[in-house]
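Lab notebook page, bench 4
Experiment: in silico fold of construct C2
Operator: M.H.
Input chain length: 365 residues
Purpose: comparison with the prior construct
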Amino acid sequence: MKLSVLQENLDKALITVSRLVQSNNSLPVLANILIKTTDGRLELQSTNLELAISYKIGAKIEKPGSLSVPAKIFSDLIHSTPNDKIQLVALKDNLEIHTNQLNSTLNGINSSDFPHIPDVATKNKFTIPTKDFVTGLEYVLTSVSLDESRPVLAGVYCKVENNVLVFAATDSYRLSQYTIKSSGLEDMEIIIPHRTIQELIRIVKTEDIGEITIGITETEIVFYTDSITLTSQLIDGTYPDYTKIIPKLSPVKIEINKDDLVSGLKIASLFSRENAHTIQLSVSKDKLSITSEGAQIGKNISSIPVKNTGVTKEISLNARYLIDTMLSITEKTVVITMQDKLDPCVVSAQKNSKNNFHIIMPLRS
């Protein structure tokens, strides 16, 4: 293999693919990045056997070939190299790196030892605006469970029915749902792993990607862009019917300024740290009181004006959960609905609140 590539392009690709590489892998080759020539371009690959990424960049190919090299040293070396043309030459299992100021040789591993990332044949394939898709994922991501004892909850549930794409996530203490209407989608139900979603969000936020193509099989999901392919295993299992806990009636509905609420919650969380972030919300006709206390710290009560169309109620919630929901709401006004103190509390923006919402389970105070 012999080729020339611009440092800034190679550095950008290495930053992306290196995120999947872990130094404590049982297989030494998994600490490497695969370098190969594909259709006149340079392709970089990395994998942790559950998630794989491929990044293609422009290059002047003089001789095709492939080789895997240690990810960290290669990435650090290229990142430290001045922005100039870089020549890469593979000789047996070594990679020579040449610039006007640099002549380095890295010990590699034969590409035949690198795990093969197959081209997944996906029958269910669709294209969707990247912003819409990522917005839905980010909206529900904070509710994904990090408890490995329940694998089906360790990802985002995606369901398509009648051209409506629904995202949902729950950790049994909170639940989030977000919906997107889009034509041309086939009905499906899948669970995308949390780590996969994190990597996808990072990629689209560093790349200018207007649309993303998604391919799905029974066991895998593939995200395609012009230069990047992200392939992931899906979580096997049946997602619980979370719709059963969505409240049907809400005797209390308050409208509150989001910034005022966030400020009050942050102050409340300072006093409730030693009490597992437990706070009490008390709703009257025109005021929301947030009470928090800690035996070693003291007590705090914040009062915020609200518009209440229901009766007076009290409920105990986790302050951190409430703060997390605010990160996904872009409108200035937040809507909170309640039933009794042991029933779920629903948080949403005013717009499309029936389809996009967060549910937080109450705490027994």
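Observations: Residues 258-271 form the longest helix (14 residues). The chain has three domains: 2-113, 124-243, 247-360.
Next step: discuss at group meeting.
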